[in-house]
Structure formats: C-alpha cells, structure tokens
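User: My collaborator sent over this chain with a note saying "see what the structure looks like." That's all I know about it. Can you take a look?
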Amino acid sequence: MDVFAYGLLVLTTLPPLVPNSALLVTAGVLASRGEAFLPLILLVVAGSALLGDVLMYLLARRFGGPVRSWMQRRPRRRALLEWTSTHIQRYGLPFVIGVRFLPSGRIAGALASGVLRYPLRKYVIGAGFAEALWAAYSVGLGYMGSAAAGDPLYAAGIGIGVSCAVAAVGTGIQWVSRRRAMRVPAEEDGGAEAGEAPKGAGEGGDNGANGRGGCAGVAARQGAPDRAR
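Assistant: Without extra context I'll predict from the sequence alone. Here is the result:
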C-alpha cells in the first residue's frame, strides 16, 4: 500500500457515517498477503477514528445548545440522544466504550458525551479503547479470513458478511433496550394515577414523567462548571 491508500483509510474513518467496512477488510487482506504493514494500518485506522470522535465531542461540548436543538428536530434523533445520555450518566466509561459498536453509536456517544460535559480525559480513554477494538476487529476480519481461506475475494466476502451480521445484532440490542426504556415511564405514569409516587424521578434514569432525565437533565446542567478532568 502506498501513501495514497493510507490517506484513503484516514478519509474514510475520520468522519462518521462513511461506509468503510469493505475498505478495512480489503486492507486486512492486503496485510495478510504481505502487501501492507498491519501495525501501521491499525494505527492509522484507530488514530483517525479517535481524532474524529474527539472533534465531535469538542464540537458538542462547545456548542451544546445548538447541537441539542439539532438532535431534537427529529423524533428518532431526539430519542437516540436521550437514550445515550441516560446510559452514559448511569454506566459511565463502559457505555462510552460499548456504544461505539451500536448503529449510529459513534455519533450519538460523542455528541451526548460533549453535551453532558463528560470529562474529556475519560472520554478519550473510552473512545481510544473502543476505536482500537474496532480497528482490530474490522481489519482482522480480512486478515484472518485471507489467512484461512487463501482467496482474497472469498475472505472479503466473509469479512463484509460478518460485519453486517454484527451490525444487525447491535441494532436488535439497541431496539430492545430502547423499547424497555420507553416502557418504564408508562408504568410509572400508571402507578402515579393509582396514587403511587413515581419512582426514580430524580435518579437520572430514563425519561421520567417530570422530564428530568435525558436532554432535559442535560439542559439543567449546562450552566454548571466543568468537572475535574
């Protein structure tokens, strides 16, 4: 691989929502055949993706209000931001790492962390770990597939197929989690009508009847000073 090829890896992994699975699998195939240097590929892919994550985080941290308004224009984006913000508050660093592997999780995790003013040092650690895993997984599919199958086209097909399967599983997990999150407020509203006090209204959980969770809680904290990094 020449300099142009490594530059193409940067251009397809730094910005979000750019299809790059086939390219990363192909890079792994080339590394398996000795036509590319595997450690350099992993460094370029993980490093450029982390840079993109940090830029999104800083943008959301600096312009929290406009970013939040943009995310709330559509119901799906609003629900994704609220769901991600709630889970970052609840689980912290493990969720910052895990959300990277969910559909649209790279964008949602970075923007929600920035809007929440999640500590930069912790975010960089979590995002860096997640991108290292993602790079090893994505490039490794092509590398291991080529080593096992011996046919570059067959290896690329296996790698892309596995990537699609993992994405489908992630979509299912996200859908189930969001459905459960939507069911909790409905149950609490029913309990309140029966004379019971809503539970977890101030615990930073899923969107409660009083709107204290998710983005409403984020807005209430925008004037608070930054945490110690």
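A starting point for your reply to your collaborator: The chain has a mean pLDDT of 77.
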